Amino acid sequence: MSAESLRLGREPQARLRPGAATTWAVLPGVWSGLRHRPDIWETWGGGRRAASLGPFRTLKLQPTLPIHSFATTHFWVVQQVNMKDQVCVSSLLCLEGRTMPKKAKPAGTGKEEGPVPGKQLKMEAAGGPSTLNFSCPRGLFESLISPIKTETFFKEFWEQKPLIIQRDDPALATYYQSLFKLSDLKSLCSRGVYYGRDINVCRCVNGKKKVLNKDGKVHFLQLRKDFDHKRATIQFHQPQRFKDELWKIQEKLECYFGSLVGSNVYMTPAGSQGLPPHYDDVEVFVLQLEGEKHWRLYHPTVPLARQYSVEAEDRIGRPTHEVMLKPGDLLYFPRGTIHQADTPPGLAHSTHVTISTYQNNSWGDFLLDTISGLVMDTAKEDMEFRAGIPRQLLLVETAAVGTRRLSGFLRKLADRLEGTDVLLSSDMKKDFVMNRLPPYYEGDGAELSTPGGQVPRLDSVVRLQFKDHVILTVGPDQSRSDETQDKMVYVYHSLKNRRELHMMGNEETECHGLRFPLSHVDALKQIWNSSAISVKDLKLTTDEEKESLVLSLWTECLIQLHNHFHKLLVSPLGRLICHLQSGLNGTQSFNRLSYYSPQTRPYYDLKWKNEEV
Fold first, then answer.
1. Secondary structure of residue 4 in the 3-state scheme
2. Is pLDDT larger for residue 119 or for residue 581?
3. Among candidate residues 59, 68, 56, the one with its CA nearest the CA of residue 21
4. Lowest-pLDDT range, 19-23, 206-210, 475-479, 556-560?
5. 439: closest CA among 491, 498, 510?
6. In whole angstroms, what is the distance from residue 39 CA to residue 37 CA?
7. Alpha helices (runs of H) in 240-332, residue ranges in sequence order
8. Distances in Å between the alpha carbon of 279 and those of 276, 310, 339, 493, 555?
């Protein structure tokens, strides 16, 4: 194949296109992150070397793998910093293009050659075509429903009809099996789990659910006895509390959907069924982990149902979908879809996990959440809303005058809503951020509870971090109870949420966050909407207010700062990056910018989210 060229300048002559193998192009004499290398790195997939580069002139891609489908493109710029902490303009320039191979084929045919930083190598191995992509929430969901495109999914299936994805991918099946296995129960029971709270034991008998729970703590030998001899299904509630990989998946999905994401694991022996036909009040994604499961889906009697309900077999008619799921397969169906599933006789046991979301997350729920605050705000300014209702209105069954007045009030509220851009107080927002999973981390998670780096000052450049885990809303001052409550800006976050309480209902949860005067809302929006901003440019009256604001956010681990980022943005290389970013939008564009010091420690890492649409 001939090389494709991208001229580095204001107007690229040729845009990057699908099909490029992972190719590293390195300027001569740069700091590579491991050692000083004057030569050119070889391609990740093996094959031809990248062409030699002049100083920021032409970058050539040498495709070395078959073209199947485009996954992602990363444009890396790694800045070298000398001992005086000054940014050098020329260091390392790398462009990475990744291909998505055909089913059951490895991502590359050759071995890794040349020094690649260990962290990057690990990321590539974990994010290959046979596992899930954890680079960003959208990437995770795309890989979860692959090969279906997200646009197709939301246009044709979401809240409309079931989707069955059957895959013949041994590597993906192996990964699914690692999420939860029947054999995991022994170690989980030793950690202390309880009937009802953590585990249900049940079986479908004559179209009804029969619960076989004991009292108190679950003992593995008794559990296995019920499974083997009583042919009972074991339902494990919210396994993401114990299994790291499910935590990792569901945390990303909560970022993607903006809604709580729960899960249950069902382990059913051969020739048995755990639950009768029923429908749920959640959107369901079924991942088959072990064995095979026979599923039957029926037309909903209550589309997009708001509550769980069991349906009698003689009322549901013939199945609209019938499928046997195997490890690596995925099934999606909307809330309200009637379904039942069994493990056929003569086969091994079945294990599947249901990942569910969008419970109480409808427009009706949102109206109920926002309308009360809107009414109270309007009543403070409009005396008509404070006027009393007609005498004996509550004593009559129907009252035309009351209906007419309510219609008029609703029209006024609609006009008020359309004429404002003020952030509305929302208990749904607060409930979501209070009860969701904390960001996934490895180790002790100190970065979520202990601020790092230098204390921000007036001359600092700051940026928001963990943005997907932070919400900004306006509401009344909760510390005052009188009618003259001032509006306050509330910043809620989930960094300190307790993973072991996720989706456990009545368990005690805490609200973590900050509150500021309403005068701070514009400055907070600046921080929210900027990739990085100078503290002195914040829209606040005094320098003391600016420093106090960023110090509060920094103390909660919500912002990062590094003045070197500002030096990069104003440097010639920074301007080059901006040209590339604007020039590549709409096709493919780089989405990660990293700093590395001579000690090879990445001290700044910024990711753009301009995926191909």
1. strand
2. 581
3. 68
4. 19-23
5. 498
6. 6
7. 244-257
8. 10, 7, 6, 33, 45
Confidence at residue 398, expressed as pLDDT on a 0 to 100 scale: 67
306: left (phi over 0), alpha (psi -120 to 50) or beta: alpha
Distance CA 319, CA 340 (A): 10
Res. 39 pLDDT band, cuts 50 70 90: very low
**How many Å apart are CA 493 and CA 548, to the nearest integer?**
19
- Other Cβ atoms closer than 10 A to 253: 21
pLDDT tens for each residue of 62-79: 332 222 222 333 333 333
DSSP letters for 70-126: EEEEEEEEEE-B-TT-PBPS--EEEEEEEEEPPTT--S-SS---S---HHHHHHHHH
Cβ neighbours of residue 6 closer than 8 Å, sequence gap 6 or more: 12, 13, 14, 15, 16, 58, 59, 61, 95
Quick one: DSSP state of residue 502? T
How do beta strands 592-595 and 69-79 pair? parallel
Please give the model's pTM, rounded to 2 decimal places: 0.72
| Cβ 6 vs Cβ 59: under 8 Å | yes
Amino acid (one-letter) located at 314: D
- Greater model confidence, 71 or 508: 508
DSSP 418-460: HT--SPPP-HHHHHHHHHSPPPP-STT-GGGTS--SSPP-TT-
Task: Work out the mean pLDDT of the chain and round it to a whole number.
Answer: 75
pLDDT in tens, 230-240: 999 999 999 99
DSSP string, 391-412: TTGGGSS--HHHHHHHHHHHHH
Type of residue at 57: R
pLDDT tens-digit map of 182-197? 999 999 999 999 999 9
Residue 608 CA neighbour count, 13 Å, CB half: 21
Q: What is the DSSP letter of 328?
A: T
Hey, which bits of 153-245 come out as E strands? Answer: 163-165, 199-205, 208-211, 233-237
Least confident of 33-47, 124-138, 247-261, 346-360: 33-47
